[in-house]
Design a protein that fits this description.
alpha/beta, Alpha/beta knot, 7 helices, 21% strand, single chain, 7-stranded parallel sheet
């Protein structure tokens, strides 16, 4: 067994990424404080080839040294937009026929393992603030809320970890359908 070198991984260039088919997914960060979390979500979004990232409210935007530290250049490949509020972002998404899905623990949330994405639908996964979660006022505008199952004493995952779990599950489910 030999560890592969970066040049052996056959990865896309930034230009290749821009022209490649993308997952029909937008990632929304609702008032995420940590620039390291923002950078990590960019890097994960690049790995799964999401269509775009929407940064809302106080969420930091590129270019920023702290974002770049964890994004490792993914801010150059993944398209992104900033919205003053998550409400504005959700309106944009609905205008573009995305299903708005909050990743949040609410009375009507379904477990991630029960989520079955429609193969011809576009999804926007909304991830909230590290302490407060997805803004309460936007929950009524959601088409669906998904909860990630957890079995320990803590009630949440880090926002960048949640993004990785949800995007992997979505990608896996879409691949399994084909």
């Amino acid at each position: 067994m030999k560890k592969l070198k970066n040049e052996e991984l056959d990865r896309l260039t930034v230009e290749g990424y821009k022209h490649a088919n993308k997952l029909p997914v937008a990632v929304v960060l609702d008032n995420v404080r940590s620039l390291n979390n923002v950078g990590s979500v960019f890097r994960t979004s690049d790995a799964f080839r999401v269509t775009e990232i929407l940064l809302c409210g106080i969420t930091g935007t590129p270019p920023h040294r702290e974002i770049q530290k964890t994004a490792l250049g993914a801010t150059e490949s993944v398209d992104w937009k900033h919205f003053d509020s998550v409400s504005d972002a959700v309106n944009y998404l609905k205008d573009n026929r995305y299903r708005a899905v909050a990743i949040e623990q609410v009375t009507t949330s379904i477990s991630l393992e029960d989520f079955r994405p429609g193969p011809d639908e576009k999804y926007a996964f909304i991830f909230g603030n590290e302490i407060k979660g997805v803004s309460s006022e936007i929950l009524t505008a959601m088409d669906l809320c998904i909860e990630i199952p957890q079995f320990g004493t803590k009630h949440s995952f880090n926002v960048s970890v949640s993004a990785g779990i949800v995007l992997w599950h979505y990608h896996y489910k879409l691949r399994a359908e084909k």
